[in-house]
Amino acid sequence: MSFGSVQGPQIDVFLPVLQTVICVADLITATLLFVQYSIQSHRAILVLASGYVCSGVFAFLQTLAFPGAYAPTGLFGNADHAAWFFVLWQTTFPSAIIVYALWKDKRDSSAGLNIGMAVACVVAAIIVLSLLVTTGVEYLPTLYTGGITVQTPAAKFVNILMLLIGITALAILFSRWRSILDLWLIVTLIAWMPNFIVAAMLTTVRFSVGWYMARGYALVASCTVLTVLLTETTFLYARLVDSVVLLRRERANRLMSLDAATSAMAHELKQPLMAISASGEAALLWSQKSPVDLERVRKCITAMLSGAYRADEFISGVRELFKKRKEHRTAIQFDDVAREAIDLMRPGLQANGIFIETEFKDHLPAIYADRVQLQQVILNLIRNAIEAMNATHGARRLRLATRYDGRSAVILSVEDTGRGMTAADVERAFVPFFTTKSGGMGLGLAICQAIIEGHAGILRIAKADAAGCVFEMEMPVANDTPRDEVKVGVAGDDVRSLA
Per-residue pLDDT averaged across 434-448, rounded? Predict the structure, then answer.
């Protein structure tokens, strides 16, 4: 304790530099959190970002009012003004963390508008609180006497109060800890604690060793979450680059394979077609002779028929090649395939601010199907739902549910809150080359229907109106053992993410 109370040199430039760095770090952290909120639309992240804005601005205002920082007596006010700005700085941030911890499960639908309103409210709150501690400081307890020299008993009481607020925020956040961001906020709060302990117990004067130590802890606490966010962003970017490279490589390989396959098919078809063409021309010439050489004409027609048969056999062989192969069909669980599809589409769903709900029955009868083909159908339906909901401004919710019809089929429904479809669009939805999208080819749903019907199943539109669409996939079961237990949940609840 005596070491912490030792008076150190008064380095006037120390506070402006340190707290300007803290201000910039907090505002950058707030910006990154606002960006994350625009993607995930968790209300708690919006509150946390607002808390960082308050923290950064009050830290800078405290520096402006601090005697000896930018002016011998501060740019405005006196020592108590700087002290009360410090109190605002150290209370608004943990208060925001408390609200963040309590609102972790709440979501918003209009991210951009909410960010603007939040920034406006934060600016208004900062102005009101700043006016309170500048114009009404005479009504507040005196925290320092002798300029910037000695703390009053009220200052120690305020430091203890701020410590209790921080401990409360730490306890609430720890009890609701679910993500990486929560973990590093806990580290941040712990790093803040010595700031108040030193101020309340180890030192009663500014520029002591304990005072300098407390400011060092403040710098570490302010940069903790920023460092984590930047690190996570870098890692995510690196993984994204790797994924894009792999996708491009796979696409190039597929294009090469497709080019080779089409070249081979063109070559195989070209030969019988050329033979048919040559025989047809020869037959035409022999038929124009006088007298007509019927025997030669007959031979030409026979050659033409032979070429036609060869072309038909080749086309039939290609069709057989792309027909379903039963050796790839196994007994699978419909909900397992749906969960895999959700996991694959989760980045796209989060990027578009879409809330995922699932209602999967446990112990459903197995279905006999090609897992990959079934997954592609579900992925296509989810992509269509995302595009439909991107055209709306209301709540974006995607719901996947499975059920057993009690007889011989398992049904998966994919429900969205998109723009919906008209009655005329529903009638033509599965017609090849019909599409309601400006850049669509109109083949997705037709191919999906062909895949499901190839499995002896049914793909249909159960509902389509202005509130959204419901697509249903009905697949025959591999056995007829029904189950009744139901499991309801939100997809991704068990996923550890940054937020």
Answer: 68
User: For the structural domain made of 243-326, what CATH number should be given?
Assistant: 1.10.287
Taking phi over 0 as left and psi of -120 to 50 as alpha, with beta for the rest, 77 belongs to left
Residue-by-residue DSSP string for 70-90: SSTT-SSS-HHHHHHHHHHHH
State the CATH class of domain 328-489.
alpha beta
Decide: residue 139, CB within 10 A, 0-12 exposed, 13-18 middle, 19+ buried.
exposed
* Percent of the chain predicted with pLDDT > 70: 77
Model pLDDT for residues 377-404, shown as the tens digit of each residue: 888 888 888 888 887 777 788 999 999 8
Is pLDDT above 60 for 440?
no
Phi, psi of 452 (to 5 degrees): -65, -45
**Burial (CB count within 10 angstroms: exposed 0-12, middle 13-18, buried 19+), residue 448:** buried
pLDDT of residue 191: 79
144-153 own/partner pairs: CB under 8 Å, 24+ apart: 144/79, 144/80, 144/83, 147/67, 147/79, 148/66, 148/67, 148/68, 148/79, 148/206, 148/207, 149/205, 149/206, 150/204, 150/205, 151/199, 151/204, 151/205
The crossing angle, in degrees rounded to 10, of helices 180-197 and 79-102 is 150
pTM to 2 decimal places:
0.51
Rounded Cα distance between 220 and 29, Å, is 13
Domain boundaries, the chain: 14-232, 243-326, 328-489
Q: What are phi and psi of 70, to 5 degrees?
A: -105, -15
